[in-house]
Amino acid sequence: CAARVNGWEAHVLPFLRLHQPQSNSNGLDFDAFSRIEVAAYEECPLGTLVLNIARTLLCARAQQPACYLRHTATVSKELYALPLTVVMGTEWPFYALLNSQDW
Asked: Using an 8 Å Cβ cutoff, are 36 and 52 in contact?
């Protein structure tokens, strides 16, 4: 039985909307967040990873391969580099969030 994050969109989308143009109709313009991502990563690398996972899931849900491939590379690299002790010791739901998507 794997964990899932039910209703993850309700938690992530309001934050992402704060950092993107109001005129965007498809909801997948992450340029504003991308501009502050380095600073966000310095402040909270695990939180930034969760937002990158959410961006990847939004791209997958929108069936936009270019968007998905752009963001999944970052997620894969960060998850691979993350020590297992950090994964075990944190309450950030990395794998539960990934499991929330019906692939």
From this structure: no
For residue 17, give the nearest of 32, 7, 6 by alpha carbon.
Answer: 32
- C-alpha torsion 56→61→65→71, nearest 10: -10
pLDDT digits (tens, 9 = 90+) for 35-60: 888 888 899 999 889 888 988 888 88
Residue 94 has pLDDT above 80, yes or no: yes
DSSP for residue 100: T
Q: Confidence class of residue 1 from pLDDT cuts 50, 70 and 90?
A: very low
On the 0-12 / 13-18 / 19+ scale of CB atoms within 10 A, 82 is middle
Amino acid at 32: A
**Do residues 68 and 59 make contact, with C-beta atoms less than 8 angstroms apart?**
yes
Radius of gyration of the chain (CA): 13
Q: Would you say residue 9 has pLDDT above 90?
A: no
Of 37, 44, 43, 48, which is closest to residue 12 (Cα–Cα)? 48
